[in-house]
């Protein structure tokens, strides 16, 4: 790098719903006690994204368009997304305010650190 050049900013290389992580702004609010079907899409991105959700355990409905393997049945907190869509049935039973938001993120540290993380509230 030459003197005066700015290094490339990798902080927004990955996104969720088209947005990089913003520590000061939760992405959405989930309803406490209500079941929700979350669709986690990696369409167009052949990288592996082990997607982790805090504050709950969920049932995997599908991973990349296929029913989950036998060892992936039962309660989980991470779903595998690789070039397709994975769906989970999730429920949050505890409140999470904007000041203490829950997180969801790719479990690959490089992806998380470059924006593939989100905060969300539960009320």
UniProtKB/TrEMBL annotation:
<dbReference type="InterPro" id="IPR011706">
    <property type="entry name" value="Cu-oxidase_C"/>
</dbReference>
<protein>
    <submittedName>
        <fullName>Copper efflux oxidase</fullName>
    </submittedName>
</protein>
<dbReference type="InterPro" id="IPR002355">
    <property type="entry name" value="Cu_oxidase_Cu_BS"/>
</dbReference>
<keyword id="KW-0479">Metal-binding</keyword>
<dbReference type="InterPro" id="IPR008972">
    <property type="entry name" value="Cupredoxin"/>
</dbReference>
<dbReference type="GO" id="GO:0005507">
    <property type="term" value="F:copper ion binding"/>
</dbReference>
<dbReference type="Pfam" id="PF07731">
    <property type="entry name" value="Cu-oxidase_2"/>
</dbReference>
<feature type="domain" description="Plastocyanin-like">
    <location>
        <begin position="9"/>
        <end position="122"/>
    </location>
</feature>
<dbReference type="GO" id="GO:0016491">
    <property type="term" value="F:oxidoreductase activity"/>
</dbReference>
């Amino acid at each position: 790098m030459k003197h005066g050049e700015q290094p490339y900013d990798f902080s927004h290389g990955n996104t969720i719903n088209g947005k990089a992580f913003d520590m000061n702004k939760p992405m959405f609010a989930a309803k406490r006690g209500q079941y929700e079907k979350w669709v986690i899409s990696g369409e167009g991105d052949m990288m592996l994204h082990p997607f982790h959700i805090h504050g709950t355990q969920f049932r995997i409905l599908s991973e990349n368009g296929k029913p989950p393997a036998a060892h992936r049945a039962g309660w989980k907190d991470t779903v595998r997304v690789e070039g397709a869509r994975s769906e989970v049935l999730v429920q949050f039973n505890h409140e999470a305010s904007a000041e203490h938001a829950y997180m969801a993120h790719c479990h690959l540290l490089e992806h998380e650190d470059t924006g593939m993380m989100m905060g969300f509230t539960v009320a």
